[in-house]
UniProtKB/TrEMBL annotation:
SMART domains: HATPase_c, HisKA, REC. The modification 4-aspartylphosphate is found at residue 617. Pfam families: HATPase_c, HisKA, Response_reg. One of its GO terms (molecular function) is phosphorelay sensor kinase activity. Residues 544-565 are annotated as: Disordered. Residues 554-565 have a biased composition (Basic and acidic residues). Keywords: Phosphoprotein. Residues 324-545 form the Histidine kinase domain. It catalyses: ATP + protein L-histidine = ADP + protein N-phospho-L-histidine. Residues 568-683 form the Response regulatory domain. Its EC number is 2.7.13.3. This is histidine kinase. It comes from the Bacteria.
Length: 685
């Protein structure tokens, strides 16, 4: 305000009898005051540019609202103020006063209550309340408009994220790019857990040229989540320290928004956005970030679920294929192995070595098909109540012969271990396979541990793992400190014929056999591995709650082929080669044998003759399968034992992967000694 105008205004105020103040709103100071105002308020107004806080006791925000309204309207506005020092309530009229230099001041007229009528006070109060409400509503509308804009952005991001194809390797990058675009940010970064450490999952915008995909941060997932639960701000600081280090100091956390990303209820990582205040009024809100982070977590969960489903379907398809091939191959091997065995007894000279090679090849083929059937879950199991600690101690010498001298094997038996229900023979094979794999993973020696423990798998764990039922399990873990596996290899470790070993060093069927056996036993298999640190394979077998006593240790079967036997046996087998081999072997053992290829023919023979044993294939042509034939046999001769044979068994004698109670079974291919032992045992019984 020019000095001449200021002098004139000061002179005018000196002549008035009213209590008048001139306020400068930008500086919140009293620039001029009349003598009546000085008398009313006190000598504090004698100074130059007196702060309004030394004159009025009102709330600063309310007083500023009053000044703003007074400057924005042409008519005077009325309110009430509190004067210092005694907090006297007086009425104030305020109006805008514009100088020639366009500076806007507010002129205040102060009047004590007695100077106004009661009606005028009521009117002024209502006007003030109305104007305050108008201001509040204007502010609320601005906030609502901002929230609507944020909601529209979030809905757009949700819609676009939901349409992403999660089967591609780039789905995370695509999701983060969409988030950065739809939320109108300067950039977005997704940090995820992998093998216990945080790494860059995807980056775009400001982060894109600084951080590389899959770049590992020097912060563990466990440390971050524990800190987040206790102090989210400290967790963000730890994360940014790691990001700053990884970027070489090129990243600045100022103004960023970090939101945890949860997958299946557990924090898996963090989404970081750099708001763009110009493009997005108010920036990215916390609520907006929370919504998008939740959708991103659901996307990751969907991708992992679909990946597990595809992997399971692939394993199922491979299992069906290999199971069918193995069944037919076992019939062929039964003929080859059986006739090679007969040749070994009947020939001499150079041809004997050829027969031995044929027998060895057939045995290797039988081992291969056995593993394929185990993976396909079509190998009949004979589960029984088992003390797993005792069984491991029993096979401990065999395990030690499997490893080298530079490997330290430790058996850690869990105390009070629950009994399990499993096929002991297949369990031994599974442990031997895992120990052999651990041995091969430690070419320079190391530590190998076989551990048992009681565990409970809860509903949360089951929700994250396919085919797992919550409950009590007996865990058997085989751990090594060898080379370990990268995640891509660990994911395929149970696929048949998948191997990282050199040609001739492994078939790639060891873990697939273990996987199939555990699944067929209604258990669960979990692989934990990290490159350079080692691998742990955990087998979970359901706790046996039947209360059955643990059977006594087994004794090896005695060779029966050299002991002459008496009895009459009915053999039913649709494969002519297998039928001839079985008939020839049993005849050589001293039995009388009737051999037929169909169940109907066998039923007619049983109606006319008496037999000591019925030996039948499970799968027979026509409507008369092995199970139906056995039922007819029990009707004709209730005390006659039935021995089933098959390359693998369908559900005619197997339910849930286990043999029905009381069923006797021999797997093809078998040797004459094995067949002799089973037949002799049945006749003795």
């Amino acid at each position: 305000m020019p000095e001449t105008v200021s002098a004139m205004l000061s002179a005018i105020l000196d002549l008035t009898d009213d209590a008048i103040l001139v306020i400068d709103p930008p500086t919140r100071t009293v620039r001029f005051s009349s003598p009546r105002a000085i008398e009313l308020i006190g000598p504090v107004l004698l100074g130059d540019s007196v702060p309004v806080s030394q004159v009025f006791a009102n709330d600063e925000a309310q007083f500023d609202d009053f000044l703003r309204l007074a400057r924005s309207v042409t008519d005077p506005i009325i309110s009430q103020v509190l004067l210092l020092p005694g907090r006297e309530v007086v009425t104030v009229k305020g109006r805008r006063m514009t100088a020639s230099d366009d500076t806007s001041r507010v002129l205040l007229l102060l009047e004590r209550e007695a100077e106004l009528s009661h009606r005028f006070r009521l009117i002024s109060e209502r006007i003030l309340a109305l104007r305050t409400e108008v201001g509040r509503r204007v502010l609320a509308e601005k906030r609502l408009s901002s929230n609507i804009h944020a909601l529209r952005r979030a809905l757009g991001a949700i819609r676009n994220i939901a349409s992403i194809d999660v089967s591609t390797d780039t789905y995370l990058q695509e999701a983060v790019t969409l988030i950065a675009r739809d939320l109108e940010t300067h950039g977005a970064l997704l940090v995820l857990d992998e093998l216990g450490r945080l790494h860059v999952g995807a980056a775009t915008g400001r982060f894109g040229g600084i951080l590389a995909p899959k770049q590992t941060l020097n912060l563990s997932h466990a440390d971050f989540t524990r800190t987040w639960a206790r102090d989210p701000k400290l967790a963000r600081d730890l994360l940014w320290t790691s990001l700053t280090h990884a970027s070489g100091g090129a990243l600045d956390p100022a103004g960023t928004l970090a939101i945890p990303v949860s997958v299946s209820g557990a924090i898996r990582g963090v989404l970081i956005c750099v708001p763009n205040a110009e493009a997005a009024p108010g920036g990215v809100t916390q609520a907006e970030g929370d919504i998008v982070a939740e959708v991103l977590g659901n996307l990751i969960a969907r991708a992992e679920t679909e990946a597990r489903l595809i992997h399971a379907q692939k394993l199922q398809a491979v299992g069906q294929l290999t199971g069918g091939i193995a069944h037919d191959f076992n019939n062929i091997l039964a003929v080859v192995l059986g006739n090679a065995e007969i040749l070994l007894e009947e020939i001499t000279g150079p041809r004997l070595e050829l027969a031995e090679e044929i027998q060895d090849a057939a045995i290797r083929g039988a081992t291969l098909t056995s593993r394929l059937l185990a993976f396909a879950r079509k190998q009949p199991l004979k589960p029984e109540t088992t003390d797993i600690n005792a069984l491991l101690r029993e096979i401990d010498p065999l395990l030690r012969r499997t490893i080298r001298e530079d490997i330290d094997l430790e058996l850690v038996s869990g105390g009070g271990l629950w009994p399990g229900r499993l096929d002991k023979s297949q369990f031994e094979n599974a442990v031997l396979n895992l120990v052999a794999n651990a041995r091969d993973a430690m070419p320079e020696g190391g530590k190998l541990t076989v551990e048992t423990a009681n565990v409970r798998l809860d509903a949360d764990y089951a929700a994250q793992h396919e085919e797992v039922r919550p409950g009590q399990y007996v865990m058997v873990a085989v751990s090594d400190n060898g080379t370990g596996m990268v995640p891509e290899v660990a994911q395929e470790a149970c696929t048949p014929f998948f191997t990282t070993k050199a040609v001739g060093e492994g078939s790639g069927l060891g873990l697939s056999m273990v996987f199939g056996f555990v699944k067929q036993s209604e258990g669960h298999l979990k692989i934990y591995s990290e490159p350079g640190l080692g691998t742990t394979v955990k087998m979970y077998f359901p706790r046996d709650l039947s209360g059955n006593p643990v059977p006594a240790p087994r004794r090896p079967d005695r060779a029966e082929s050299d002991t002459p036997r008496k009895g009459r046996i009915l053999v039913t087998e649709d494969d002519p080669g297998v039928l001839k081999y079985v008939e020839r072997s049993l005849t050589k053992l001293g039995y009388l044998v009737d051999a037929v290829t169909t169940g109907d023919d066998a039923a007619r023979l049983m109606a006319r003759n008496t037999y000591d044993v019925l030996l039948t294939d499970v799968v027979l042509p026509g409507t008369m399968n092995g199970a139906r034939l056995a039922a007819i046999a029990k009707g004709i001769a209730p005390r006659m034992p039935v021995l089933f044979m098959s390359g693998y068994s369908e559900n005619v004698i197997v339910h849930h992967g286990s043999l029905d109670q009381g069923v006797e079974f021999i797997s093809k291919p078998f040797t004459r000694d094995q067949l002799a032992s089973r037949i002799a045992a049945l006749i003795r019984a």
